[in-house]
Design goal:
- By secondary structure, the chain is α+β, with helices and mostly antiparallel strands.
- It has two domains: 202 residues, no CATH class; 127 residues, Thrombin, subunit H (Beta Barrel), CATH 2.40.10.
- 57% of the residues lie in helices and 7% in strands.
- It is built from 17 helices and seven strands.
- The protein has a five-stranded antiparallel sheet.
- Helix 1 runs antiparallel to helix 2, helix 1 packs antiparallel against helix 8 and helix 5 crosses helix 8.
- The termini are far apart.
- The model has no long low-confidence stretch (mean pLDDT 91).
């Protein structure tokens, strides 16, 4: 639901970006991030279907339950763990769409800044040790320092468009999932979406706060001082708090309960599989290994394990994102490759594929060969294996890394960064600089 709803928000942003060059610049970072998230989630959905992952997981759970049934002591200890996990997720499904879209409203910058000030006023009424982690004095000071930078990217019309789009997603939910304030806004209206448009326009037009810096002063006020201002955006912040707070409490309770059950489940799996379990990504430093290898995602389609500078130039169109610098074109035309040419490719290698298991946040990780030498940096995974967080496949899961020789080529031939090159110990290249 969020994937396809995200596409709706993306389209609305793109419409706003087309209206004005400055707006396009201001929303470009958010749009790129949104596109990455949407691509990742769509890739996962496609991968789940291709790998028949649901069927595999169901089969795995059936085998797990059969194992427990043959071991009375383990059955007594762990026999209900999957049912308990299932019950928690069933409860989560009842409120997750509402929580997700209410949470997405935090991307609407001005209302969110006002909300943060209101929420901070509430948290200030508690001892600092009892405040929510995001509202410590340190975190709020960091937020205030960032407001001036964020304000330079702020576009009021984009905020309005975003809020309209997200509220329309909320009002499209089943009645028991819709926020109460939206029910009141749309009650008795023939066109709920038009009612939302009018509400958002009035919300922004009636507020004295025009941008994020206007709202910065609110962080100095108490809750009673804020409420006495009776500004529409402060009224909305209070309303939003009463809608989101019960859902946050439910989410926190879910997190605590599921963590305990997952611990029990893992103990049961170790009792079943011993040390033959595939290691989980648990936010600790990981060491993974594999081979440089291409793959075939479907019939008659083969991706070779290495790309070369020729491919960069073949994609060159002169327009972003395929606008190769003129100097790079000249280097290729003159075959001025220096010692960075790959003898097998007859060209400068750019990227390579390998069978290591990475996840989000691993970009920039060093890739070493068997001698411990740096040969590349990981920066992405292949689209067909977005599901690797759930199911690693030796046939299809690939890490994409930039070749160290391309990095050196760019530093040397393109950038002339000899000061950096002189600090490096470069091995394995003929006539290394």
């Amino acid at each position: 639901m969020i994937v396809y709803g995200g596409f709706a928000v993306k389209l609305r942003l793109e419409e706003e970006a087309k209206k004005d060059p400055q707006t396009a610049i201001s929303v470009s970072g958010f749009l790129k991030g949104l596109n990455n998230v949407l691509k990742n989630n769509q890739g996962m959905l496609d991968g789940f279907s291709r790998l028949k992952l649901l069927e595999k997981k169901r089969q795995f759970e059936a085998e797990f339950k059969a194992f427990l049934a043959q071991n009375p002591e383990l059955q007594k200890r762990y026999g209900s763990v999957l049912d308990e996990i299932g019950a928690l997720y069933e409860e989560l499904r009842r409120y997750a769409p509402k929580r997700n879209w209410l949470g997405a409203l935090r991307f609407v910058r001005l209302p969110n800044t006002v909300y943060m000030a209101y929420r901070y006023a509430l948290e200030k009424e508690k001892p600092e040790s009892e405040r929510e982690p995001g509202f410590s004095e340190k975190r709020i000071q960091e937020l205030l320092k960032s407001l001036e930078y964020r304000n330079r990217q702020y576009v009021r019309t984009v905020d309005i468009a975003m809020m309209k789009a997200m509220l329309k997603k909320l009002v499209a939910l089943p009645a028991d999932q819709q926020p109460e304030f939206l029910k009141q806004i749309t009650a008795g209206k023939d066109d709920p979406e038009q009612a939302i448009d009018q509400y958002v326009e009035q919300l922004f037009a009636g507020s004295k706060f025009q941008d994020l810096m206007d709202a910065a002063e609110l962080f100095q006020k108490s809750r009673s001082e804020l409420e006495r201002l009776n500004d529409p955006l402060i009224v909305f912040a209070k309303t939003y708090y009463h809608e989101i707070q019960p859902l946050e409490e439910k989410s926190n309770a879910f997190g605590g309960a599921i963590s305990k059950l997952r611990s029990q489940y893992m103990k049961a799996l170790f009792a079943w599989k011993g040390n033959r379990l595939y290691p989980d990504a648990n936010r600790t430093i990981r060491f993974t290994y594999g081979d440089v290898r291409g793959y075939s995602p479907r019939d008659a389609v083969i991706y070779l394990p290495k790309t070369r500078l020729k491919g960069v130039l073949e994609k060159h169109t002169g327009q972003e994102p395929f606008d190769a610098p003129e100097k790079l074109l000249t280097l290729f035309t003159n075959r001025d490759f220096g010692p960075y040419i790959d003898p097998e490719l007859g060209d400068v290698p750019v990227n390579f594929l390998h069978t290591t298991d990475i996840t989000g946040g691993n970009s920039g990780s060093p890739v070493l060969n068997g001698r411990g030498e740096l040969i590349g940096l990981a920066f992405d995974g292949n689209y067909e294996a977005m599901t690797s967080d759930y199911q690693f496949s030796n046939e299809i899961t690939r890490t994409i890394s930039v070749d160290a020789r391309y990095i050196l080529f760019i530093l040397d031939k393109f950038s002339g960064a000899t000061n950096i090159l002189n600090e490096l110990e470069i091995v394995g290249l003929p006539n290394s600089p």
